[in-house]
């Protein structure tokens, strides 16, 4: 199982702050594409963190990972 | 001290975290909620964070600063939840033996927070609301009922 966390406008668009995905071998890029196809949000500017570490598009997601979809941040 | 809080920030408390006998300078940056951005009037802001990751990113920024400027001490506190005009959203204190390092290190902290730390602000304006898209506030994400005119 992969746990996906959503924040800010992504959370608003999907209507959930958390999604569960059955485990399948996939990269960060694959996940972004799946999310874009299913929820119609743009992932171009979205950063992805796996277990609280920023990940690159080619990084693989593993069973049990917590994956956060991080839209451009605006703290400060 | 690297923290995300939901209650008002005491700047004095943040400063005290970095003060010590061999510090000759303390530079404090305080980010506050601004009312007017050009023609747009902000009513209030709503901040949210990926709290656990935001805390660890803040402490990583602190670690990077201590590596770059070895004699500095750093404390960063960011507030989330609903903030009114004039409220303190973030306070960064850096101490060092001499002022130049503290100035540079403090600047480094705020610039990195704005790029990397997973915190978001939702602007509630007189004419709508939306999530601010990036640190330079040039990208926005239109929301139902909101008016995007950045």
UniProtKB/TrEMBL annotation, chain A:
The keyword Transmembrane does not apply. One of its GO terms (biological process) is Mo-molybdopterin cofactor biosynthetic process. It comes from the Bacteria. One of its GO terms (molecular function) is nucleotide binding. InterPro entries: Beta-grasp_dom_sf, MOCS2A, Mopterin_synth/thiamin_S_b, ThiS/MoaD-like. Keywords: Nucleotide-binding. One of its GO terms (cellular component) is molybdopterin adenylyltransferase complex. The keyword Cytoplasm does not apply. PANTHER family: MOLYBDOPTERIN SYNTHASE SULFUR CARRIER SUBUNIT. Belongs to the MoaD family. This is Molybdopterin synthase sulfur carrier subunit. It comes from Sporolactobacillus shoreae.
UniProtKB/TrEMBL annotation, chain B:
Pathway: Cofactor biosynthesis; molybdopterin biosynthesis. Pfam families: MoaE (PF02391). InterPro entries: MoaE_sf (IPR036563), Mopterin_biosynth_MoaE (IPR003448). It catalyses: 2 [molybdopterin-synthase sulfur-carrier protein]-C-terminal-Gly-aminoethanethioate + cyclic pyranopterin phosphate + H2O = molybdopterin + 2 [molybdopterin-synthase sulfur-carrier protein]-C-terminal Gly-Gly + 2 H(+). GO terms for molecular function: molybdopterin synthase activity. The keyword Thylakoid does not apply. Keywords: Molybdenum cofactor biosynthesis, Transferase. CDD domains: MoaE. Gene3D superfamilies: Molybdopterin biosynthesis MoaE subunit (3.90.1170.40). One of its GO terms (biological process) is Mo-molybdopterin cofactor biosynthetic process. SUPFAM superfamilies: Molybdopterin synthase subunit MoaE. It comes from the Bacteria. Its EC number is 2.8.1.12. Belongs to the MoaE family. Heterotetramer of 2 MoaD subunits and 2 MoaE subunits. Also stable as homodimer. The enzyme changes between these two forms during catalysis. This is Molybdopterin synthase catalytic subunit. The lineage of its organism: Bacteria, Bacillati, Bacillota, Bacilli, Bacillales.
């Amino acid at each position: 199982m992969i746990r996906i966390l959503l924040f800010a406008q992504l959370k608003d668009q999907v209507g959930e702050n958390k999604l569960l995905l059955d485990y399948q071998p996939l990269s960060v890029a694959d996940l972004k594409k799946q999310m874009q196809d299913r929820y119609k949000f743009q992932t171009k500017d979205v950063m992805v963190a796996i277990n609280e570490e920023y990940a690159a598009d080619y990084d693989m997601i593993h069973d049990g990972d917590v994956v956060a979809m991080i839209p451009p941040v605006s703290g400060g | 001290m690297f923290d995300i809080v939901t209650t008002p920030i005491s700047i004095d408390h943040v400063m005290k975290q970095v003060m010590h006998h061999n510090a000759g300078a303390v530079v404090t940056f305080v980010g506050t909620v601004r009312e007017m951005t050009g023609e747009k009037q902000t009513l209030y802001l709503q901040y949210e964070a990926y709290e656990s990751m935001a805390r660890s990113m803040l402490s990583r920024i602190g670690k990077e600063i201590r590596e770059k400027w070895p004699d500095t001490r750093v404390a960063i506190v960011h507030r989330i939840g609903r903030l009114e005009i004039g409220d303190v959203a973030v306070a960064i204190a850096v101490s060092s033996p001499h002022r130049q390092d503290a100035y540079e290190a403090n600047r480094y902290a705020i610039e990195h927070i704005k790029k990397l730390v997973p915190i978001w602000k939702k602007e509630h304006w007189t004419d709508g609301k939306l999530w601010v898209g990036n640190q330079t506030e040039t990208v926005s994400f239109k929301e139902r009922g909101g008016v995007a005119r950045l």
